[in-house]
Design a protein that fits this description.
mainly alpha, TM1646-like_dom_sf, Four Helix Bundle (Hemerythrin (Met), subunit A), DUF327 family protein, 151 residues
Length: 151
């Protein structure tokens, strides 16, 4: 049986020739794959947001005719779901979004505006001081903000 050499006696291999060219060949393919993957993911997110947005539009049209608390709560739930998906996937839209004056992504500032509008509608219902025109104005404002998120 041959004796086992000590680790320090094994000759060291400092540089393998050709490894740089292999890495250079892999990087473009990896980046191409990642770009394709991100595009597919952003398309899926956009389709999901568009589907939720269509439901929001249907519910807001229903609210214009029938202003009931149950419908407002369903509308609010749909809007919150839409915003949740948008915020969760805001990194997907980060290339398309820009920063606002405070350095935050535009999505987050829009979420705050939508929350204020939803709170205003809910507060009107709770106090039984429902101004139909004001509610419709808030709903249209929210719709515009949600369109901004998708752009």
């Amino acid at each position: 049986m041959a004796p086992i050499n000590n680790i320090s006696q094994i000759p060291k291999i400092h540089n393998l020739q050709g490894t740089d060219s292999v890495q250079k060949k892999l990087k473009p393919k990896q980046s191409e794959f990642l770009k394709t993957f991100e595009k597919i993911k952003s398309d899926d997110v956009r389709k999901k947001l568009e589907g939720i947005f269509e439901k929001i539009v249907e519910k807001s049209d229903h609210l214009k005719d029938n202003l009931y608390l149950k419908d407002v709560l369903e509308y609010k739930k749909l809007v919150k779901h839409f915003l949740g998906v948008a915020v969760e996937n805001s990194h997907v839209f980060s290339q398309q979004n820009f920063l606002d004056r405070r350095g935050r992504h535009r999505v987050y500032s829009i979420v705050k505006q939508v929350d204020r509008e939803l709170d205003s509608i809910t507060r009107d219902f709770i106090t039984n001081h429902i101004d139909h025109a004001r509610v419709l104005k808030s709903i249209d404002s929210i719709r515009g903000l949600l369109v901004d998120v998708m752009m």
